[in-house]
Design brief:
Largest sheet: 12 strands, mixed
Number of helices: 23
Helix content: 40-55%
Structural class: alpha+beta
Distance between the termini: 45 Å
Length: 805
Amino acid sequence: MDTLFQDLRFALRMLLKNPGFTAVAAITLALGIGANTAIFSVVEGALLRPLPYLQSERLSILTIDRREAGTRWTLSTADFQILREQMRSYESLAAFTPERINLKAGDEPERVMGLWVTGDFFTTLGVPPILGRTFRPGEDRPGASLVAVISHALWQRHLSGDPNAIGRSITLDDKSYTVIGVMPRDFAPLRKCEIWPILQIDPPKQRAPFFLRAVGRLKPGVGEAQLRAELAVMHDQVEKVWPDPQKSDWAFMAEPMKEYVVGNARPAFLVLLAAVAAVLLIAMANVANLLLSRAATREREVAVRGALGASRAVLVRQLLTESVTLAALGGGAGLLLALWGVDLLAAFDPGNVPRLGEVRIDRGVFAFTAVLSIVSGILFGLAPALQISRTRLSEALKEGGRTVTEARGRRRLRGLLVVSQMALALLLLVAAGLMIKSFERLRETDPGFEPGGLMTMQFSLPAATYPGPQKRAAFYRDLTERAGALPGVRAAAMSNSVPPEFVDVTESIEIEGRPVPAGQNRPMADELLIDANYFRVLGIPLLQGRSFSEDDHAKAPPVTVIDETMARRYFPGGDAIGKRIHAGGFGPEDPWITIVGVVGNVKYNGLGAEISPTFYVPYEQNGWWGDHMYLALRSSSEPLTLVAAVRRVVQEMDPGLPLANVRTGEELVAAAAGRTRFQTALVALFALLALLLAAVGIYGVISYAAAQRTHEIGVRVALGATRRDVIGLVVGQGMRLALLGVGLGVLAALALTRLMRGLLFGVSATDPATFASIALLLAAVAFVACYLPARRATRVDPMSALRSE
């Protein structure tokens, strides 16, 4: 231990003796370690850290797998009741469904995000409230008292953090609910919510509709095979109670809750982690080259210590202690950068990056940074330590002893480090280039509607105040007439969904005269409930037939307009007009719907997603349609200037009705690309950092090589070498290393970027233009980095150079 402290004290003295070298090396390491710490904290928070619930590994989410659809399908109340009553693999099972809710806890109404949940929701998660209680058995039965649990933020905002708030009444969708509990500040299961009202489920009369998900807590010892087997039995039970003449191909699917929460973000997290790892490796190569450069000035010191009896192992140990101490300094500075970086990541959260709000620098991240610093110190310090410990004592101890050129082994190691830096930088730059090009393609993709001059906002009509479709339809007709008459408004329309990232209803369909064979699933299509002005307000072109009119009211024959994708897929002969389809339950109460028009494609499932078949129906012809609708306005001026006027109109019609999700068309499109923009910006930032470090690295190596060859250059100039000859000599040495690194980087990128296919849109993972442009860019940067020391070498005075030798 005494020896270790002695080595540490000596290492600190040597680092303090060379503050310039220490500062440059520590800052270089801080950039690499800080970036790794920040991104690791995100990855650890999202992928590695357990969910903040009691034994979260036993939690799973239940949905329906439609086999060929490739997406999760929600449960029906009939499904949930059978699962809750008959499943034995779960200790408890709760259903939930998200919804924006009209809240009135004071004078002003507010639209908040809520999660309707059944009675076992909080006990299933195993999280107690900080105030009051959660639901009791039986409170989710129809007819029981209406109760709700609220978030810490809502408690503070609307109830002033009053500890006596339990028992207070709040109004949700014009119904009075009693507050029974307040959850912890950071409690946000599944999605960000502010209130959890009780979900009371009426006995089902049919299997549809499907709008629930379920979360269950497995009993101890229940494995995946046992759970899958019981879910297959539950499938048969549902088929027995609710026979399906079609015998559709579906199955219940249980997914670990953590996997459900993370979703498809895992590949992006891993790409970010790989990117910062490459940055750190480049930084380590830079510091290793700095140590090798410094080694030339320490040969006499090492030789003296060796002559005094220090073994090679002792010398290597001392040099590694200096490297690890240097890495610790860089790690400490990197940790400070990471603290700032995590706050910056949270500030730029696009809103759909899973668990980003839970990211923090905790003990696990501290441990990661410490281990990373120590390992980095050993890795970048080992090779220089071994090289310098081989110093020949006789030559190093000669008075004025020196060689014309650097030792061959050390020169090869420096070259290898440069080649590695260039290869890693090219790999990272190619990844960034592909993602930037993909993002540009995503931005350029046609969403199918005109975002400019468009504004949308959401309303929710409480069933207690608007108990039937006729009253809701009358309200929306009046609203669109008043809003459409406002100054600056060209037209107004209603719909239950808005592009490019939200579709509320997806239905099974059947085409008249084309029955689907039993045992196969009926095709799926997105359904939008709209009014006659919707296509005009959103700028969706009519391609064939007619649009809706005021004559398509509740008592008129059912009609639909389909999109181009649906027409091309199911009516390839172009004869869709006049054909009829079924949608929904296919019961006697579900009439055939006649196709009267075809419109252009619109993206409702994301800018990068494949367009799904879509059909539109007049909302007045659907008695079941919900109370959540969007008002869309086409403005001749800045859309946001209309918000206050629309709010006044709404308040005049219903003072208790708040607005929600007020967004312009540009904001809708930008939000749809938010996660891609976030990921692309981070990878591009790390790629630029890698480019900078690689350029500094090759500049340092060529500068040192030129300095080592001062005598040689002086001789060449004395013998008649021109300025161009000297530049060619120095630049040629650096460019050979750079081009070798670029070549190896291209080969590595061709192999590894294929793993990024799931993150790219509209661009190949081996896009030739991106590879060529990045290779040329990196080669150009390397040339500049080589040219600067080469130009300085041309200023060598031959007589001075020869005299110094």
